[in-house]
Amino acid sequence: YKYSQTEAGLPLSLGLCYCRHYYLTLCHCNGSYISFQIPVIFGIFLNSYYDVHFNFLGTLFAGLGVLVTSTYQILVGTKQTEFQVNSMQLLYYQAPLSSLILLCVVPFFEPVLSLPWQLSFEALGMVLVSGLVAFMVNLSIFWIIGKTSPLTYNMIGHCKFCVTLLGGFFLFRDPISLNQFLGILSTVSGVTLYILFKLRETGSSATLRLQTQKV
């Protein structure tokens, strides 16, 4: 939950600080894109600061996760452009390598041999469903970043962040303070401004292409 809050607001803000070249190449960023991040980051800060579960260790691990996520998202976009492949093709080559890395790392962090479990159709079904969902999530990440940009993908993450908080409030009665609610409004306002700007930018680009074709 805490990682979702941090990851929603900061992946590109932190990761692109050391990958500025990729950022400008992929997004052709200008001041408007940066300004839209201000209300979003401010909203994340309000929710994090007034969260009773906020602590240093959790923030440290969330920050490391954000750093890795930033690099991963940027590479997803650059590699699709570099190798001229679509999202499915890139995932086809990346998934086996990721599985091999996890296979080597997991035994050192998880008690795999000591887990008390029995193979059953129900357990096998849950494993298959979990794998299918994970595949669809990864495919959607590759597709969104490939068709748009890492910044647009993160804006979708901001929406997920707001839905997570509001869902916890309405479904599980998770308390939300006034400051946290203001943080949600700030985040939503930043996302809304970004969407409106992108729609206007897309419309202007389409109009320019039509005028160029006529000429």
From TrEMBL:
InterPro entries referenced in this protein's UniProt entry, alphabetically: EmrE-like (IPR037185), Sugar_P_trans_dom (IPR004853), TPT_transporter (IPR050186)
The name this protein goes by in its record: Solute carrier family 35 member E3
Domain Sugar phosphate transporter as annotated: residue spans: 38-194
Record's keyword terms, sorted: Membrane, Transmembrane, Transmembrane helix
Transmembrane spans: 30-50, 56-78, 90-109, 121-144, 151-172, 178-197
Organism: Geodia barretti
Single GO cellular component term: membrane
Organism domain of life: Eukaryota
Membrane topology term: Multi-pass membrane protein
Cell compartment(s), UniProt: Membrane
